[in-house]
Write a structure and sequence with these properties.
Length: 483
């Protein structure tokens, strides 16, 4: 694992009096209520947690809680950003130009990747980090393995080791690290992988603004959202390391999309040819209230309105021809220029805070554990895509959802975004590739193609032609994994 790998930095233990004087100005001294009943390990843990909280900033957030943005109003005056379509229309260069330019950058080792995997994955209900979910329809490969295979394939194709920066949180760090260590880094080189931990934010009582205690000696903390990525990359030395190693652009992706076009040269090429500082991949939403952020342009700036902030009536707005007005769905694939990210860090551009009302278990003033059955707490999160309005020459690239998006969000049985639906999408895509190479595949047969075998349809046809399979074995009648 690379040198930048680390977890949260440890802080010196502060005394009771030092902690008290730190908390008093912010009316949070209740956090020390059980101090005398804690042993010395518990005291130092609590002290460390308190030392890591920026209480002045938290106070601003708590006080600003009634300031809300009218997203319905914003959506009503939004226009749609100009997008480069997947067939290459909408830009001044050809798909071929974009592919060549992207490949050049890959070959030159200018691309690094960051995978955000710190979420708690509550909707999926899987008891391990989401990246360890076995999503392969035939192979049962995990989500992490999907990404590793794609990076290995890209590495072989372009003759470089594309670095993977993998962001975890307290909830996912130890198990993710163990998983990589015990599984030989999934075929990646250990020095290619940097696992680092994101920051946390305390949950506060929704009524009083007091920080909640999860236990007598521990704050109720949760990950600070994927918007914490930039801070965490910087704090853990990853920005410096990338710069030192000549990386210029950072490909950002999430843990829940096995079809992500990781290191897609065309996407990278569009970004470079447009001199964009931040490029975002979108899909045409499949239905108005699909749970993806809405990419829009407001007052000349590209920005994203999260689905959870958007009233249904705004999501359902249509154009005169009946088509969906807010059509561009964010699938959380971004390409950032390192220069841009460094400028954001230097300017300390604070991303807006999004508040969510959640149920948070905590100990009350008597030290009793309370497990609420309705939301009792406010959690604070930042979103990475809020960097968009700060970026110059932003462009939006449209992808075909059947090729690039199969989100694993909900447990099987839900209507959308389940592992079963993602597996079906993978098989449908790969069945289509095989058919286009002249192979007959029954609809009932599951097929899965590892990118190490073929990264796309053209590579697959070539590989089958070389092996004689597309001529000799014309039909596939049982489940098949090409690896
Ligand atoms: P989601 O918004 O889907 O949240 O995260 P989640 O926590 O994974 O899942 P639920 O809502 O509890 O079911 C989108 C992506 O952002 C990452 C997740 O790991 C996922 O890749 N993420 C989210 C972080 O890395 N850190 C966070 O604090 C939040």
């Amino acid at each position: 694992m690379s040198a930048a790998q680390s977890s949260a930095q440890s802080q010196p233990t502060l005394s009771f009096d030092e902690l008290k004087s730190r908390l008093e100005p912010f009316e949070q001294t209740h956090l020390l209520r059980f101090w005398d009943s804690l042993d010395s390990d518990q005291q130092s843990r609590l002290s460390e947690q308190i030392a890591q909280v920026d209480f002045a900033r938290l106070k601003t957030l708590i006080e600003g809680k009634d300031k809300s943005v009218d997203f319905g109003e914003l959506a009503a005056r939004a226009t749609m950003p100009q997008a480069v379509a997947s067939d290459g229309s909408g830009c001044d260069w050809t798909l071929y130009d974009a592919q060549k330019r992207g490949e050049e950058a890959l070959r030159a080792g200018e691309i690094a990747t960051v995978l955000v995997a710190g979420g708690q994955g509550t909707r999926l209900g899987f008891d391990q980090p989401k990246g360890m979910f076995p999503v392969g329809p035939v192979s049962e490969r995990t989500l992490f393995q999907f990404f590793a295979d794609r990076l290995i394939a890209a590495g072989e194709k372009y003759g470089v080791d594309v670095p993977l920066y993998l962001m975890t949180s307290e909830a996912t760090h130890a198990e993710t690290r163990r998983y990589f260590e015990e599984n030989n880094y999934l075929g990646l080189k250990p020095e290619q992988v940097t696992i680092f931990q994101q920051g946390t934010m305390p949950a506060v009582d929704a009524e009083t603004g007091q920080v909640l205690l999860a236990e007598k000696g521990s704050l109720a903390l949760s990950p600070d959202g994927h918007g914490g990525t930039l801070r965490a990359l910087s704090r853990n030395g990853c920005m410096e390391e990338m710069r030192k190693n000549g990386r210029k652009h950072l490909f950002y992706f999430q843990v829940d999309n096995p079809l992500v076009g990781l290191c897609d040269p065309v996407f990278i090429g569009h970004h470079l040819l447009a001199s964009s500082e931040m490029t975002t991949q979108v899909i045409r939403k499949r239905y108005p209230t699909e749970k993806v952020g809405n990419v829009v342009e407001i007052d000349g700036q590209t920005q994203i309105i999260e689905y959870s902030d958007l009233p249904d009536s705004a999501a359902e707005m249509t154009n005169a021809d009946g088509s969906l007005k807010l059509w561009a769905g964010n699938i959380a694939v971004h390409l950032f220029d390192l220069d841009f990210l460094e400028r954001m860090l230097e300017q300390d551009t604070s991303l807006p805070i999004h508040r969510a009302n959640k149920k948070v278990a905590h100990v009350d003033a008597d030290g009793q554990l309370v497990t609420p059955d309705s939301p009792n707490a406010t959690k604070f999160e930042q979103f990475i895509f809020d960097l968009l309005p700060n970026a110059k020459n932003t462009i939006v690239c449209e992808a075909n959802p059947a090729e690039a998006f199969a989100p694993v969000k909900n447990a099987n049985g839900a209507a959308t975004d389940t592992p079963e639906l993602a597996q079906q999408a993978i098989c449908d895509l790969h069945r289509g590739w095989l058919r286009s190479c002249g192979v007959t595949v029954d609809d009932s047969v599951k097929v899965e193609i590892n990118p190490r075998f073929a990264m796309d349809q053209d590579e697959l046809c070539e590989k089958l032609r070389q092996s004689g399979d597309s001529d000799g074995e014309q039909s596939i009648s049982s489940d098949r994994y090409f690896s």
